[in-house]
Amino acid sequence: MLLLSLTWYEIISVSLANGEPPITASIMAPSDLHIVKHDFGVILSWNSNITEEIKTYDVTYVLIYKFDTAKEITEKLQKKEKMIRLGLHSGFHAKVKTQLLSKESEDIKESNWTEFTYKAPPVYIQNFSCVIYNVSNLNCTWDIKTEAPEDAQYFLSYRHSREEFQCQLYLTNAKNKNTGCHMKEVYFNHTNNIRFNITVKELSNSSENHSYYKKIMPQRLEKLNPPINVSISLENRRIKINWKPPPTIGSAKKKCFTYQVKITDLEPVDVSEEEYVHPIHDPTKQYVIQVRAKKTTCISNKFWSEWSEPVFINDEYKDYKMNTWKLLILILFPSMIFTAGLLIFLCRRYKCIDPILTPIPHPSDRIRIWLASDAALCQQEYGLVLQTSNMLFISDLSTPVTEPSFNTSEVNMHSEIMLVPLEKNKHKGIN
Q: Residue range 1-24: average pLDDT?
């Protein structure tokens, strides 16, 4: 106990000898934390409660603040205030304390924490995102929360290089609410931030307007165009691919770009240079090459460019095949024409086709007379008569004929057709 008393006495003696008041445990914590609204957020300030004696020490304020869905941010300040950008956050929680640093002994003494919670007006939008494409076009979109007022309307503007720009063309949803903005022919200085401002105006209550702010580097929003001048060359069964970087709003140094090369159905390959060499596994197969770009070194952006226009590999082989077919056709076609002509000539010379093309002749008059005389002879021999008016036609197989001129006892039924001459058969019972 005596040793501790002597040590404390020596510290006080040294401090007094150097003209510095002793650092005691009675350092008061900051008080009266309050905010003042600012264009892009709020200014948090406080009273330090530093006495005149303590001012001879180095005074530092440790501020820690955290948004609802973000990590804690720690800063050491010399001033008694801090401008905090709210962005699209609905508020934050902060705490601050005082640190005293002795210039001679480098001893540090701290006060207790003083905490403060700021509840910002409700945020009615979410998923705010923007993209810059074709160097000078800007698209921004956002979603409206379900708890947003029914009569609220949303307006976008941004500030860049000390100039204010209003949205040129709004994108609307089915309820005619603004949910996006398109602007063209706008140009950005990549060294200056873009400060977006979304204002929510309630039509039924003009005093209830809310503004949300978001600060972004323009290069982080840029979606590059595809690489240009993509070309290929064949060297020793390998393919060498070259291209040039696309235009950009930021630095165009080679080291700033990262590329991906896609060959047919293979997985994209990451490339940091402006060329890539790939072996041809199947020289007879046609490959398709495409390249896309992104910035990851100088500054990182989250958007890949679109793929470049496809370039076809092995067009030479395709042309070779086409030329081969053309050559074969040119050789075979005259040969086929010559062969066909020769066959036609031989067939005409030796009348090979005449038996096929000769029509079947009609019978001569002698044959017709012979057939007629033969038919007459048959009639006389078998008693056939061609006159139908003097014939009796019998066709029923089951019912007997009941003609009065017939004797039914003498008629025998047969299952056939008979032509009976009337004059020569009266003796058979036909009257």
A: 40
End-to-end C-alpha distance for the chain, whole angstroms: 176
Q: Dihedral, CA atoms, 258, 263, 266, 267, nearest 10 degrees?
A: 10
Identify the band that residue 242 occupies on the pLDDT scale cut at 50, 70 and 90. very high
Distance CA 295, CA 224 (A): 8
Rama region for 351: left / alpha / beta (φ>0; ψ in -120 to 50; rest): left
Q: Whole-angstrom Cα distance, residue 248 to residue 250?
A: 5
Residue 196's nearest CA partner among 173, 215, 211 is 215
What's the residue count for the chain? 431
- Quick one: which of 317, 351, 293, 167 has its CA closest to 234? 317
- Sign of the CA dihedral with 407 first, then 408, 409, and 413 last: positive
Which residues face 199 on adjacent strands? 155, 211
CB-based contact 311:231 (threshold 8 Å): yes
Mean pLDDT lowest among 82-86, 255-259, 343-347: 343-347
Q: Decide if pLDDT at 182 tops 70.
A: yes
Asked if pLDDT for residue 274 goes beyond 80, the answer is yes
Distance CA 412, CA 417 (A): 13
What would the two tokens of residue 162 be? 């000390």
pTM for this predicted structure: 0.56
Query: According to the model, what pLDDT value does residue 402 have?
Result: 44
